């Protein structure tokens, strides 16, 4: 569920290429930070509703140096926060 764009979760739009890009971006951030999106939330209907209300997962301010050598968290955050 945390990899699905809010407009798809809400039922307003079907899966589109933009929604796939959002999900891919979430996966990239997870791989880069070693942190699951919405990790402190239960994956349930309440989380789905909050995502539809535009809840966004937190992004670590610093990336784990063991996972990524050349990516700056400041470069990822603007892409991640875009509304497609």
Automatic annotation (TrEMBL):
Origin species: Gigaspora rosea
InterPro entries: Kinase-like_dom_sf (IPR011009), Prot_kinase_dom (IPR000719)
Pfam families: Pkinase
The protein's name: Protein kinase domain-containing protein
Record GO terms (molecular function): ATP binding; protein kinase activity
Domain Protein kinase: 1-84
Origin: domain of life: Eukaryota
């Amino acid at each position: 569920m945390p990899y699905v764009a809010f407009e798809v979760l809400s039922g307003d739009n079907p899966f589109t290429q933009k929604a796939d890009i959002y999900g891919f971006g979430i996966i990239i951030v997870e791989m880069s930070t070693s942190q699951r999106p919405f990790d402190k939330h239960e994956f349930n209907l309440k989380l789905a509703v909050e995502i539809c209300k535009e809840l966004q997962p937190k992004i670590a301010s610093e990336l784990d140096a063991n996972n990524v050598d050349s990516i700056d968290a400041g470069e990822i955050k603007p892409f991640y926060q875009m509304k497609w």
